[in-house]
From TrEMBL:
Keywords: RNA-binding, Zinc. This is Fe2OG dioxygenase domain-containing protein. The keyword Coiled coil does not apply. It comes from Elliptochloris bilobata. The lineage of its organism: Eukaryota, Viridiplantae, Chlorophyta, core chlorophytes, Trebouxiophyceae. Pfam families: 2OG-FeII_Oxy_2, Methyltransf_11, zf-Sec23_Sec24.
Length: 1232
């Protein structure tokens, strides 16, 4: 029940802090069933009081000094001498197991402990009355199963809540009757008194009301008003308050309600102080389909969208709601009631607020996108976890060690005027240390992390820690579980490192970081986690520099400046911090604040095995030749198309099925008599099919998830589908490392052919978290080599550009054509460069570097944002900085990163860093300095950029896969940025003023949708379709900030209150990329994608957009797609449009530019020659006659059948219908 992070501790304070390894323990008072089965039972002492120190209250243990003749023993923690003559018998493990074992349990019956007999268990069910029909049917079935499984002596109560709170009368079997109280305010004294007065009919033993309870559950009716789930009247706060009043009264605790004066801002814990004695054994189970929208605790939905009412964006109403739920949490603790909240459906529920009530009371918050088997399993498990109440955890440490903080489901003890804990009598103890803390719940698997520091030199050979968990069991007995462990005090680093327990240390370190993330509201505010990420990076550097071996001329990772070889004891810690840095708890994976807040709370209370998996995901590969699962590291190159895999990430488990596995119906499933774990085996069918593989994976998932609470969510996905991103985002991007580095880091990959690994990486779906490789090696060359290289490149003529000088070696790069003339080689590489070139190749992994560009920069001169030409150069490039430092910036979408490049450093870019991130050097004379100031640039800086000239078409993962002539990813991104995104921002005002007519095809499509449908308008423009249907919810998304702002203004004009939208519009607007929509899978009933696809510049990206639309659609959902046709009704338009990309001659359809007018900006008129040049280069021309500036907007004209072919290439999608209308091709796409 206590796992140390190290079995050795450095005996000096300064030395102990050197390695950054936390000294502490993970304490699990009650192991999960699986954990308990793996350990021998604890020695149990019954009928005898534990022997404790009369001075500090610590329990006697095998490390205390005992005189067996006199029974005198000296406390190892405080040094006090105790006389327990006749009680302690040294060496007799049966009579005094505490003197022979590190862990022991004491059980004192209720009478012997001075405790009252425990009350019968109490279960209060509070069910949302605004659920949809399907959701309610599943909830009712799960509740009926739970009620049927409860013991007959259990007391039960049932409440429902919507606009009001209804407490059911469970004494009536003939009719479903309930007492209804208003939900718009907190309970007044009179309302609370009314509930207490009729408690006998609301809380009834199950044996006397089973049929009434079942009838009451079945009487619940679904909501049929057509309002979206998140906007339905739901007085969730008032319902929890009513349940707590019933729970407190059932426990014999006076008070409750709003307190004196009938205050409406929340319940008062005054008057609900827990009486000395056992807890009420109460459980409040709340099922809700959305957030609190009415009554106490309600906050504007806009605050919820901003990350939760408790987040930094919350207004006055949000702060009032946070205070109300804080009082609810205090009332739950006072009433001795654990509150479990089970949210169902896709609507956000404000997890930070509800989580405060759940976790502080010893309950749990769970989110379920759908009501299925997972919901029922969690509902049943929630009632089976508790083993007692009134839990207290006390901690003792020998001199030299001091407790710094505790992480997990604990809080400070309530202490009386004398300073003695008010909880003392509850668990049968009279003395607690100042470090004692209240356990939020006594449940299986809950874990508390304890961190210590070396506060003074440790004089003895050993340091000793003791944890005492005390609680009142279900039978009223007082239980004390005591574990005492010791750590050897050492002086040497080697002895300390050999004593480190990496996984426990990594989990404790990560729990401290996540606790800080929870405190600062990082779940709802992404910016709040940035300082934590920087701290993580600094800690990694500290660990590496203190205990690692510096590897010269090696590639770095995590963007760090040095590469270190870590000792095995610390590698796991570093890997865990790396995964925490990029994973779902703190990293950039998309998701709502509810999901992140839930992860934070679950991780803080997770036991060691589950916490390790939440930090370090495990990948299990199915070997179809043997039927065995092999555990490998979470490497992206391990996903091969002919196999299946299971990724265990603790709270989520993913099944991945390769595209090469044959599908189709199967007659005989594979025999399942093997043990489904890494060493287990199934009889392998011949051949393996997708169905067989999925069945084997499901068995493994069942074995992995056994005993976990909440039950992990499992998702199954096919290779190449949109859902595969959820798995890909959690894999380590090892494909950016060399083959040797992969084999060294993950030995299990050594048996995978390098070609298979590369092919697997190329097939990966785009990840939510941008993968970024910055390999920076300091002092790559010596100062002498630097001077020799500068002399070599200075010899001969320089080519003078507009603001800098350049030279080319090996091949000449044409800035006009953005290509390399392979027939005209440039000057050979300088002889002085050859020794350095060999090291560049070794460090970068490039097979050859046959082209080098030398750039010279003077102060104030920079480099425009660009991505090096994809079609001209290979997938890796390296840049060596000489003479002066500079700060290079990287940009991808809205994300920015800055990287300092000192002299003699080598920067290596590959993968997405090479092809998807823009890099540039700002034109300025100073750069940011590490101390926060500004540093002037040097008089001269020279960069040597090494590349490999591409001789074959690019086949990397970021290239288009559509045949000859199709532009690559980087080229398409650049074209869209210059001729779509920039143009629409420039013409937004003109575009808004001229687009107002509703296209009949769109009106017809929207008219066919059911009431309450959720519609995503992808590329919503100015939101002109928002008002077509008043009874559907529109989610407007647009890449243009100007257009999205106009759409939001249109919505705001009709929606003065975000909580009460007008009948004219139910809409939300977000700035989003259509290729990465910020929507949950299956969240939409329909999608509009009008005049968007023809602005996407490559076939691969068009397919990606369509896959994204299919991902957000529910099964059976439809999307209306419209594009410009090459068969224009007015052929004269074609004559006005010109090619933008002259290299697009081999494309299957013409890529044309369309003049998009914006207001005249006052620029002088250009000459015809200059206008022609700007037109060719993608600039603008002035039309004085119309008073406009004409920009070139990219548009791909679709030929007949082209859009239909794209839709058919999307897995799970089909063409429901298609037509030609007004020079547009229209396709109705339906998702299976």
């Amino acid at each position: 029940m206590m796992t140390l992070t190290t079995i050795a501790v450095l005996n000096e304070k300064r030395s102990a802090a050197r390695f950054g390894v936390p000294v502490g323990a993970l304490v699990t008072p009650v192991l999960s069933e699986a954990g308990a089965r793996s350990l021998p039972p604890l020695p149990c002492v019954q009928g005898r009081a534990a022997v404790v120190c009369s001075e500090c209250g610590a329990f006697v243990n095998l490390y205390c000094k005992l005189d067996p003749r006199t029974g005198t023993w000296h406390c190892i923690f405080c040094g006090h001498s105790n006389d327990d003559r006749g009680v302690l018998i040294a060496g007799n493990a049966q009579v005094c197991p505490e003197l022979a074992c590190e862990a022991v349990e004491f059980v004192e019956p209720a009478a012997g402990a001075g405790l009252e007999a425990p009350p019968t268990p109490l279960v209060l069910l509070a069910v949302d009355a605004t659920l949809d029909a399907l959701e309610l049917a599943s909830v009712q079935a799960a509740l009926l199963e739970v009620v049927a499984a409860l013991p007959p002596h259990t007391r039960i109560g049932l409440l429902s809540f919507g606009a009001a709170v209804a407490a059911f009368n469970l004494t009536r079997a003939d009719v479903a009757a309930a007492d209804v109280s208003p939900g718009h305010c907190a309970a007044s004294d009179a309302m609370a008194a009314g509930l207490r007065a009729r408690r006998a009919v609301h809380v009834v033993p199950l044996a006397a009301c089973r049929s009434s309870a079942e009838a009451a559950i079945q009487s619940l009716r679904p909501c049929a008003d057509g309002v979206s789930a998140r906007e339905r009247p739901r007085c969730l706060g008032a319902a929890i308050e009513a349940a707590l009043i019933l729970a407190s009264d059932a426990a014999g605790v006076p008070g409750g309600g709003a307190g004196a004066g009938g205050s409406t801002d929340g319940p008062s814990a005054q008057g609900m102080t827990r009486a000395v004695g056992p807890m009420a054994s109460a459980r409040v189970l709340v099922v809700t389909g959305g957030p609190t929208t009415q009554g106490p605790g309600a906050a504007p939905l806009g605050d919820l969208d901003a990350g939760g009412a408790g987040g930094p964006a919350g207004g006055a109403a949000a702060r009032l709601g946070a205070r109300f739920f804080g009082r609810l949490a205090a009332a739950a603790v006072a009433a001795g009631a654990a509150v479990d909240v089970l949210a169902v459906g896709p609507a956000a529920v404000d997890a930070p607020l509800l989580g405060a009530v759940a976790h502080r009371s010893g309950g749990v918050l769970m989110l379920h996108e759908s009501v299925g088997a997972l919901f029922g399993a969690n509902l049943a498990a929630a009632l089976q976890r508790s083993v007692g109440g009134a839990g207290v955890l006390d901690v003792y440490a020998s001199p030299g060690l001091a407790l710094t903080h505790a992480v997990g489901p604990v809080s400070g003890l309530d202490r009386g005027p004398s300073g003695a804990p008010a909880a003392a009598g509850r668990a049968g103890r009279s003395t607690y240390s100042p470090r004692a803390m209240q356990l939020a719940g006594v449940e299986r698997g809950l874990c508390v992390g304890l961190s210590f520091e070396v506060a003074a030199p440790i004089a003895s050979e050993w340091a000793v820690l003791q944890a005492v968990a005390s609680w009142v069991g279900g039978d009223g007995a007082a239980v004390h579980r005591v574990v005492t462990r010791r750590l050897r005090a050492v002086a040497g680093a080697g002895a300390f490192l050999r004593g480190v327990r990496p996984r426990a240390a990594a989990v404790l370190q990560a729990k401290g970081v996540v606790r800080e993330a929870q405190r600062c509201g990082a779940a709802g505010d992404r910016s709040a986690s940035l300082p934590l990420l920087r701290t993580l990076g600094q800690h990694l550097v500290h660990v590496a520099s203190a205990a690692g071996e510096l590897m010269e001329c090696e590639r770095g990772w995590l963007g760090r400046r040095k590469r270190w070889r870590l000792p095995p004891e610390l590698r796991t810690i570093a890997e865990a911090l790396y995964q925490l840095h990029r994973g779902p708890m703190l990293g950039g994976m998309r998701g709502h604040a509810d999901g992140r807040a839930l992860l934070h709370a679950a991780f803080l209370g997770a036991p060691l095995p589950l916490a390790v998996r939440m930090l370090l995901p495990a990948l299990f590969l199915l070997d179809t030749a043997t039927g065995r699962f092999q555990e490998v590291g979470p490497a992206d190159t391990a996903l091969l198309p002919d196999t299946a895999a299971v990724l265990d990430h603790g709270s989520h488990i993913f099944i991945w099925l390769g595209s090469a596995l044959p599908g189709g119906p199967q007659a005989d499933p594979p025999p399942a008599h093997g043990v489904p774990h890494a060493a287990g085996m199934l009889d392998a069918p011949a051949p393996w099919t997708r169905e067989h593989a999925e069945m084997a994976c499901q068995q493994l998932v069942g074995a992995l998830a056994a005993g976990r609470f909440p039950v992990p969510e499992c998702r199954t996905m096919l290779e190449g589908t949109g859902d595969a991103r959820y798995l890909a985002a959690r894999l380590t991007p090892v494909h950016r490392d060399t083959v040797a580095e992969q084999a060294a880091a993950l030995p299990a990959l050594a048996g995978f052919p390098a070609g298979s690994r590369a092919a697997a990486a190329a097939r990966l779906a785009p990840t939510d978290e941008p993968s970024f490789l910055e390999c920076l090696v300091l002092d790559f060359i010596s100062p002498a080599e630097e001077q020799a290289l500068l002399a070599a490149v200075d010899a001969g003529e320089w080519e003078v550009l507009a603001r800098r000088r350049v030279k080319h070696f090996g091949h000449i790069f044409s800035y006009m054509q953005r290509s390399v003339d392979r027939e005209q080689p440039a000057t050979a590489m300088p002889a002085a460069l050859q020794p350095v070139l060999a090291r560049v190749l070794a460090a970068s992994g490039m097979p050859v570097a046959d082209q080098m560009t030398v750039n010279e920069y003077t102060p104030g001169v920079g480099l425009s944002a660009h991505v090096d030409t994809h079609s001209a150069f290979g997938d890796t490039m390296a840049s060596l900085s000489l003479a002066g430092p500079v700060v290079m910036d990287f940009r991808r979408g809205g994300e920015r990163r800055a990287l300092a490049l000192p002299p003699r450093s080598l920067l290596v870019l590959s993968g997405e860093a090479r092809h998807a991130w823009y890099h540039y050097i700002p034109h300025r004379k100073t750069d940011p300095a590490p101390d926060g100031g500004r540093a002037p640039r040097a008089a001269r800086r020279v960069s040597l950029t090494f590349r490999q000239v591409r001789s074959l078409p690019c086949a990397c993962a970021l290239a288009a896969d559509a045949g000859a002539g199709e532009r690559g990813e980087a080229d398409a991104v650049l074209l869209e940025a210059a001729h779509v995104h920039t143009v629409y921002e420039a013409i937004a005002a003109h575009f808004i003023a001229t687009r107002f007519a509703v296209w009949p095809k769109v009106r017809e499509f929207l008219a066919g949708l059911p009431t309450g449908a959720v519609v995503a308008d992808v590329g919503c423009g100015n939101g002109k379709y928002f008002g077509v249907r008043a009874d559907v919810a529109m989610l407007g998304l647009d890449r243009s900030q100007g257009l999205a702002a106009a759409a939001a203004s249109r919505m705001a004009a009709s929606n003065p209150s975000p909580c009460k939208p007008s009948p004219a519009h139910h809409a939300d607007v977000a700035i989003a990329d259509a290729l990465a929509l910020p929507l949950r899978s299956g969240a939409c009933d329909a999608v509009l994608c009008v005049a968007v696809l023809h602005h996407v510049a490559s076939r691969a990206r068009r397919l990606r957009l369509l896959r994204e639309l299919a991902r957000v659609l529910r099964a059976g959902g439809r999307a209306l797609l419209t594009v410009w046709a090459s068969e224009q009704e007015d052929a004269r338009k074609l004559a006005k449009w010109a090619r933008i990309d002259g290299q697009q001659t081999a494309a299957p359809a013409a890529a044309t530019g369309h003049g998009a007018a914006g207001p005249l900006d006052g620029s002088t008129e250009s000459t015809p020659a200059a206008q022609s040049e700007r037109l060719r280069a993608g600039g603008w021309v002035v039309d004085r006659e119309k008073g406009t500036v004409v920009l070139q907007r990219y548009c791909h004209l679709y030929g007949a059948g082209e859009l239909e072919a794209l839709v058919r290439a999307v897995p799970g999608a089909r063409v429901a219908s298609s037509c030609y209308d007004c020079s547009n091709w229209c396709v109705l796409m339906q998702v299976a």
